[in-house]
Design brief:
Blueprint: H1 2-16, H2 34-38, H3 42-51, H4 53-56, H5 71-85, H6 96-111, H7 118-123, H8 131-154, E1 165-167, H9 169-183, H10 191-211, H11 216-237, H12 242-257, H13 259-262, E2 263-265
Parallel strand pairs: 1-2
The chain binds heme C.
Heme C (HEC) binds next to helix 4, helix 5 and helix 6.
Amino acid sequence: MKKKILYGLLIIVIAIQFFRIDKTNPKINIADDFIEITEPPREIASILKSSCYDCHSNESNYPWYSNIAPVSWWVKHHIDEAQEELNFSKWSTYDVKKKDHKLEEMAEEVEEGEMPLNEYTWTHAEAKLSAEQQTALINWIKETRKAAKSKKKEEKLHLNDGEKWSANSETTAGIKRMLAIINNEIKDVSLVAFNTKGEDLNKEMKTIFTECTMEGKPHDQLHLFLIPLVKQFRGLKNVETEEEGVKLQEGILTHLNKYADFFESE
Ligand code: HEC
């Protein structure tokens, strides 16, 4: 009787070995990769590679026991679940908010000693983080989040240390002409009026771009100021309802009036 049960089990264990897991890693594009994008110091990169990448990237190295069912199914399930939460090979596809949130979670998980998973460090001793490694990783994550935030601020229209940016006089003259166009017969809400204004404003925009002699930071700021207008002018040129036209006209006027808050000509 006992023998029969043992044979039965043996047959089951052998049979399940035919249900193999898929160990092919999806193709990776190095430009999407977390380490490639965030450029951590070598020490941090090596921690991430040896303690996190097996589960949280498309560069998994499967351990020997992942050849044996049912352990293999369990490993595969872990990796799938981990990649769903956080996949370093797809970092570029996360938006700014998601990136920040994932970095925050990374620091939390490491701080609480939740990651890397214990089940993993049992067989991957080198993946276990020392207290120093934990601190180094957490500090680097904090710095990276801070740097990303200040970069975001840079990309918004802002003053030059409390002072206005100096613009070339041709640009300021162009903005003045735009204001004149939008203010001209402002009560005329016919589609023809809107479309004509849109077209005229578009022409002024082209003139500003060709006459602009600004460079560096002031030029970047001017760019940030002008880009929303390009879209609004195009909208006005093609507007199809009066209601939409009125809204666009108001929006353009408000935006143009902001010019003097940020720029002045020498
Ligand atoms: C053995 C595989 C494995 C390794 C190695 C591993 N993780 Fe995970 N990780 C998982 C799994 C599975 C989940 C999802 C389930 C969970 O939260 O426990 C996860 C979830 C996470 C989450 C999301 C948590 C949440 O609640 O949303 C973060 C962040 C994370 N891991 C960071 C890391 C970091 C950083 C490392 C390396 C220091 C690491 N992991 C190493 C398997 C792993």
